[in-house]
Recover the amino acids of this structure.
């Protein structure tokens, strides 16, 4: 028997625990007064409740209401609502510690046990105490209701267990009935009944424990009681209607037994105690079955889940949720039959007819409490191999009986049993047995005789079937495909901790299941994809279409071969998948029952058809199913099918965005009219301009009243009429600049002169008129200004006057000519479905020459009236007869055989015409940029930065070295991005050309290219590091610290080519850390300038710590010389002598050595210290880079995930002060710099 730990928490001592009956929650009451609510499935702390004053010993959930109750050493019982996260009320009445609290399964009652020697029953609805049970003469350690009957059991330190009858209390608190006079009189004295009451009576007093009793509880179904006490015994009691007696005692605990409970499903008793152990006892034999011990933690409480096979125990440093043995049955599916073992009996279940039959008993295999682990079925010989983990692993070969009628057969052939961790059939008459202890694989025949034996090719943890003659061997870090005949490793795939291998029916693909990972691979173990889940993966099976269906603790999911996955449905409880046929999923539940559930495969079939380009299937699913939702729309967008997503969307805004994405201007225009928002028209104009659809651009500018752009559009398209109308509108709007701009576009000199006169710019008006030869207008301007030509001095420059470009040929359709490309399959299908044979008319814009004011012009700019837009004539559809060239020639064709096969030709021609009708321009698919290839080819953050993928680069740095502060790294990001490409100017009005710089241009192609290295490692070492050393030597501490920090940041973006350089990078990080730590210590020492004793002491300590930084010898001499002088000045002669000795060991220059020897000679006369320092040079230590305090060897500490600087444990989660970019204590995989 084994304990399978499902969840473990670290906290203060846990004194009480309670499972939620439905949700995966557990409550823990702690000795420090806190209540913790945990999700044991996800391993997360959901809530804390802190209202008790002192330890909380009792805790319990209500079976149906969102309530829980707690009782503590503050004598209070509190009832909480976990939905509102607050305490509803407090029940006061106990005079001492409250030990346990429980809800009644049916009535609104709470029972509490206390050190005041009483048990109280409370009505939590009326919030009153309805009974006080007295009789114990010492602390009452526990009290519980019977799960079905009107009984209470209590345990006390008076060495007794009492059973109480509460049937009178139940009758008294039932719904009111008509009362006699005597009854009503007796009710008036009900308060007196509390202490001598007939409502609750002692039924039995169980005596037998030699010391105090800590726990007593009822069996859920049988008339049994189990108790645990300080006499180190667990006692079993039986009771009937008239008496109760001791059955037996279980002895084995070495200290006080804290609690004992019955196993809800098996004849077992579980107990735990202060001897740091949990023990399992056989209830019938009263013998120990298993013992599970902890090294340092005493156990205080034990409970079982009300519905699941889960237990929880509270100990000194937290709690543990566990179960005894696995619930996963051993099973295998062959064709339409499922072979599985339930309660040590082999069943065969027909998936089609749901008929289930018992075949064979396997009770003699292993222990009665240990279920078989695996089952391997041989259809050729009708035999099964069953393995059990008992005693290190055993297996047995069972031939299946031919006749399935009569009693179950129990084979007695011991010869077909043996030791082995795993056993699987590998051929018709051979099976393999894996001996995990000796790391050996044996090939045996059906008589269980060894035919071949060999050692495993490494440290193997498990073995799986891999087709005839092959085995899958799982190691801690990989899976090996092993050829048995040749005894060689065929291939190996790096997948850690594989628990199950599930093959498809044709053995072409395999799913390798780990605790949180699914790896899909082909038969040669070439990985196709890997899927990560946050919670445990339980089982899986293959669909006929090649989709892998799997389940976690709370979901059934699917995985496509390309790596896409999704949820099919949720689960209340985990199940084990055995097979899937269409919409029916066959499973084994936690009870071991074979059943089926219905699933909806539409989503994964749709995605699979889309990936496989089975467009007819996709279209069929769209038309026949209600496949909707944001997830499917997002998926289609991600995969590059916005035209399909467009079909699903009903929201106009989303339809508009999708139409723009797939370049469908018709739908975009349609939805823009419905939405009619300026931002939509602006986006539509941008996309229409990109496609050269001037008419939609024109309409969009009209709707947004974008006059300047509209004028420029008319200029570029040569539409002089509309441009002149725009000038008139500008005049009505009193927009002088727009009017001038339009006059300039038109080359209308007279209008420009008139405008300049209107705005009072007479000099400019005169200059314009004179320059362009308009003498009359020029003279009129002079006369109006009261000037003569003699008074005006004009420049004597001669130049060609600019003239606007006139259109050579005015096109009927200003839209760009586009390639005629067939629509995509889906666009054509959806278009034909909507019967939209007439496309949306392209707008043409014209003006009424009779407009007198701007208000009349406004309707064409902002209103929804589209009458001004006239549609172009739609293409004439072909007539079938014309298409075929057939004309009505009367009956002349009657003598010819023209009617035999003409229908086929007609259909073909109609189909061709329909294809032409749906022809439309589709922009060519863009190729993959070299930057995107860099991202695909490299796992290094620097290459992602060079590609411009800053987001993934930051994710990589966070994952590798825990970087959380990216602001200091921004200059590096920008410089790397800029340095990885060359920009070349092209012709005028064209964008700049960009060329990528490759790391190895001679050897690489675009497919395997990588960006150039910006931060060369050798340059960093030879230049930047030496500069840091020189600054340190010259005493420029701030500049030196900045240089080493720059150096440390540069390392993040370094690329090296071999393992030796990679190790040197690690050494360089250590050098930078030591220097930065030392410089921070020295700068802190220099900042400590006070004369107070504490300041003086702290300064000397910092000087001492500085000498323990791993610096270059010459730099360490500076630190030691300084520390020696400081200690000598403060008369710490012993410490100064130590520093002087260390300085002399480094062979300093003669003058420094002489000075050190003089100090040492003086100090040795009186080896004492005036100031006691927090410094021990003989005990290795590191310095916390925030508090500047020593952390001695063996003490807990937290480290920076990048530079490995050391910190106090309480600083975990803060930003490292050495590198200033990484988080202290962050989980990281390590910096990767090797290309």
């Amino acid at each position: 028997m084994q304990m399978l730990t499902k969840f473990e928490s670290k906290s203060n001592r846990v004194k009480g625990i309670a499972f939620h009956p439905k949700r995966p929650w557990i409550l823990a009451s702690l000795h420090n007064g806190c209540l913790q609510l945990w999700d044991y499935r996800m391993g997360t702390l959901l809530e804390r409740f802190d209202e008790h004053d002192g330890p909380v010993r009792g805790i319990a959930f209500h079976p149906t209401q969102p309530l829980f109750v707690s009782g503590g050493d503050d004598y209070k019982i509190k009832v909480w609502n976990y939905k509102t996260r607050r305490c509803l009320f407090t029940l006061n009445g106990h005079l001492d510690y409250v030990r346990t609290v429980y809800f009644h399964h049916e009535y609104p009652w709470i029972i509490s046990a206390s050190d005041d020697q009483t048990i109280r029953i409370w009505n939590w609805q009326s919030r009153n105490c309805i009974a006080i049970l007295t009789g114990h003469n010492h602390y009452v350690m526990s009290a519980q209701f019977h799960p079905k009957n009107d009984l209470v059991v209590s345990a006390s330190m008076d060495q007794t267990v009492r059973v109480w009858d509460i049937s009178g209390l139940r009758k008294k608190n039932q719904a009111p009935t008509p009362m006699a006079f005597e009854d009503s009189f007796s009710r008036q004295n009900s308060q007196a009944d509390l202490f001598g009451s007939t409502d609750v009576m002692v039924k039995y007093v169980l005596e037998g424990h030699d010391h105090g009793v800590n726990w007593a509880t009822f069996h859920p179904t049988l008339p049994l009681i189990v108790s645990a006490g300080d006499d180190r015994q667990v006692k079993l009691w039986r009771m009937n209607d008239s008496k109760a007696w001791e059955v037996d005692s279980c002895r084995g605990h070495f200290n006080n037994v804290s609690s004992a409970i019955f196993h809800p499903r098996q004849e077992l008793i579980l107990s735990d105690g202060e001897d740091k152990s949990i023990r399992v006892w056989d209830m019938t034999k009263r013998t120990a079955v298993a013992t599970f011990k902890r090294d340092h933690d005493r156990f205080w409480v034990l409970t079982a889940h009300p519905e699941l096979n889960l237990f929880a125990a509270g100990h000194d440093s937290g709690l543990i949720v566990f179960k005894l043995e696995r619930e996963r049955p051993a099973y295998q599916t062959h064709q339409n039959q499922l072979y599985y073992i339930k309660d040590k009996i082999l069943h065969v279940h027909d998936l089609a007819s749901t008929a289930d039959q018992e075949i064979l008993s396997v009770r003699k295999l292993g222990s009665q409490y240990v279920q078989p682990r695996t089952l391997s079925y041989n259809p050729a010989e009708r035999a099964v191999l069953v393995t059990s983990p008992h005693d290190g692993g055993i297996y047995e070969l069972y031939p299946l009986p031919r006749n399935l009628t009569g009693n179950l057969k129990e084979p007695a052939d011991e010869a077909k049993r043996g030791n082995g961790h795993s056993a699987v059939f590998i051929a018709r008459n051979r099976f393999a047995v894996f001996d995990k202890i000796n790391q050996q694989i044996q090939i045996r025949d059906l008589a269980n005789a060894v035919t071949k034996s060999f050692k495993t090719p490494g440290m193997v943890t498990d073995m799986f079937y891999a087709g005839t003659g092959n085995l899958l061997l799982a190691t801690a870090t990989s899976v090996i495909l092993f050829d048995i005949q040749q005894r060689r490793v065929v291939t190996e795939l790096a997948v850690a901790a594989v628990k199950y291998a599930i093959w498809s029916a044709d053995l072409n693909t395999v799913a390798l299941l780990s605790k949180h990972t699914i790896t899909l691979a082909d038969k040669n173990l070439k990985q196709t994809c890997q899927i990560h889940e946050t919670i445990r993966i339980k089982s899986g099976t293959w669909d006929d279409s090649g989709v892998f269906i799997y389940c976690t603790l709370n979901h059934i999911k699917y995985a496509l071969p390309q790596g896409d996955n999704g949820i099919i449905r949720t689960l209340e409880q985990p199940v084990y998948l055995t097979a899937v046929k269409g919409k029916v999923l066959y499973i084994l539940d936690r009870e071991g029952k074979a059943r089926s559930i219905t699933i909806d495969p539409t989503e994964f079939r749709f995605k699979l058809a889309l990936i496989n380009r089975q467009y007819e299937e996709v279209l069929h699913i769209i038309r026949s199913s209600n496949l909707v939702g944001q997830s499917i729309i997002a998926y289609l967008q991600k995969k590059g099918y916005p035209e399909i997503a467009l079909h699903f969307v009903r929201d106009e805004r989303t339809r508009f965005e999708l139409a723009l994405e797939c370049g469908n201007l018709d739908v975009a225009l349609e939805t823009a009219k419905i939405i009619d928002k300026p931002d939509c028209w602006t986006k539509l104009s941008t996309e229409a301009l990109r496609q050269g659809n001037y008419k939609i651009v024109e309409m969009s500018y009209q709707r947004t009243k974008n006059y300047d752009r509209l004028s420029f559009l008319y200029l570029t398209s040569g539409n002089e009429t509309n441009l002149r109308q725009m000038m008139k509108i500008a005049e009505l709007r009193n927009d002088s600049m727009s009017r001038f701009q339009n006059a300039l576009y038109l080359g209308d000199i007279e209008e420009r002169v008139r405008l300049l006169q209107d705005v009072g710019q007479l000099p400019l008006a005169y200059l314009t008129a004179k320059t362009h030869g308009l003498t009359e207008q020029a003279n009129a301007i002079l006369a109006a200004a009261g000037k003569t030509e003699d008074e005006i001095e004009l420049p004597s420059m001669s130049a060609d006057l600019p003239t606007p470009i006139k259109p050579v040929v005015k096109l009927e359709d200003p839209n760009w000519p586009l390639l005629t490309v067939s629509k995509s399959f889906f666009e054509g299908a959806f278009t034909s479905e909507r019967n939209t044979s007439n496309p949306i008319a392209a707008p043409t814009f014209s003006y009424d020459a009779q407009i007198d004011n701007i208000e009349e012009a406004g309707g064409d700019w902002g209103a929804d009236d589209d009458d001004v837009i006239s549609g172009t004539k739609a293409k004439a559809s072909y007539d079938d007869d014309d298409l075929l060239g057939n004309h009505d020639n009367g009956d002349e064709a009657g003598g010819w055989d023209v009617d035999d096969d003409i229908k086929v030709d007609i259909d073909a021609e109609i189909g061709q015409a329909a294809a032409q009708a749906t022809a439309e321009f589709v922009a060519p698919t863009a190729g993959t940029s070299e930057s995107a290839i860099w991202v695909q080819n490299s796992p290094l953050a620097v290459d992602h930065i060079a590609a411009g993928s800053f987001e993934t680069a930051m994710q990589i740095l966070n994952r590798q070295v825990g970087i959380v502060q990216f602001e200091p790294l921004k200059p590096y990001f920008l410089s790397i991005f800029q340095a990885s490409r060359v920009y070349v100017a092209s012709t005028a009005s064209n964008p700049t050309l960009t060329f990528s710089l490759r790391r190895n241009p001679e050897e690489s192609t675009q497919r395997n290219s990588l960006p150039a290295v910006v931060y060369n490692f050798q340059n960093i070492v030879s230049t930047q590091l030496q500069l840091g050393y020189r600054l340190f030597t010259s005493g420029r501490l701030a500049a030196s610290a900045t240089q080493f920090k720059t150096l440390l940041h540069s390392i993040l973006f370094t690329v090296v080519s071999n393992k030796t350089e990679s190790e040197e990078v690690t050494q360089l990080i250590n050098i930078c850390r030591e220097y930065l730590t030392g410089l921070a210590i020295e700068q802190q020492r220099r900042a400590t300038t006070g004369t107070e004793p504490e300041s003086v002491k702290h300064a000397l300590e910092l000087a001492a710590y500085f000498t323990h930084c791993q610096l270059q010898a010459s730099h360490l001499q500076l630190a030691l010389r300084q520390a020696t002088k400081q200690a000598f000045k403060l008369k710490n002669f012993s410490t100064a002598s130590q520093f002087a000795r260390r300085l002399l060991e480094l062979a300093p220059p003669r003058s420094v050595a002489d000075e050190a020897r003089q100090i040492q000679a003086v100090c040795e006369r009186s080896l004492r210290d005036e100031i006691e320092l927090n410094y021990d040079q003989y005990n290795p230590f590191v310095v916390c880079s925030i508090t500047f305090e020593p952390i001695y060897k063996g003490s807990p500490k937290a480290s920076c995930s990048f530079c490995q600087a050391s910190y106090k444990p309480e600083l975990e989660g803060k930003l490292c002060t050495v590198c200033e970019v990484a988080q202290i204590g962050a989980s990281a995989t390590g910096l990767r710099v090797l290309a």
User: Anything to note?
Assistant: The chain has 32 helices and 61 strands. The first helix runs from residue 167 to 172. The first strand starts at residue 3 and ends at 10.
